[in-house]
Design a protein that fits this description.
Length: 259
Amino acid sequence: MNDFGRSRLLCADDPPPFAVRRPQGRAPFVLICDHAGRRLPRALGDLGLPAAEFERHIAWDIGAAGVAARLADRLDAVLISQTYSRLVIDCNRPLDAPGSIVTRSDGTEIPGNRDLDAAARALRAREIFAPYHARIAAELDARAAQGRSAILVSVHSFTPVFENVARPWHIGMLYGNDARIARILLERIRAEGIWTVGDNEPYQVTATTDYAIPVHGERRGIPSIGLEIRQDLIATESGQAEWAERIAGWLAPVPDWLR
C-alpha cells in the first residue's frame, strides 16, 4: 500500500510525528533524535516488508531513543524525537537528497517506496518531516527570544559492522563547520584512555547529506554536535542507561567551557 492519490497521510489514530520529553527542561541542551521511532503510518501498511526488517537498523537507530530519553532526564534537557521510521522519510536528510526516501537500504528492497511521484513524496515531507523540524525550530526560536542559550545535541547510533567491515569506535563525534563541542569532547574522552572515539567517524556531517545540524545548528550559529553510539553497546536498557550516564558526565561541563 502506498500514498498515491491521498490528501492526508496520517490518520486520526496515528500518533503525532514527534514527541517532546521534558519540555520545561532548564539545561541549555536541546536534544534531538531524528531516528528514534520505527512506526509506520497506518495508510502505508508495512511498506511491503516483513516485521523482522523493522527490528533492524534500516528502520531506526537502535538504542538511540532510550539513550536520548535518559540523557534528557539526567541533564534536565528538552528532547524532541521523531516517531516514524526513517524508511517513511529520513528526517536527517535534505528533501532533495537521494537518501530522503530510500528504495533500498543495506541490501533490502523497500517495495512501498518504489515509483513515488512528487505529490506522494511531498505528502510525507509535509506531515512527518516538516512538523518535526518546525518543533525544533520553535524551541530554538523561543530560547532566542527569551535570551536563553542553546546547545544542539543530536543522538544517533551506528551498526558495529557495515558492508562486512567492523567499526572500532565506541562513540563518534560528528560535526560540520562548527567543531567547538567536538574538540572539547574528543579531548576529554580520549584523556580517559578507555574509549575509541571517532573524529567525524563513522560519518561526517555535510549540508548535502545531513539536515538537523546544518540547518538548526550551523545556520543559527548555535554550538552543535552529533553523537553516534555503536548499537551493540546500547541495544539493552542497561546499556542505554550506562551510556546515558556516561555521556551526561561528558556533556555537563560543556556550557561552562563554551563561555
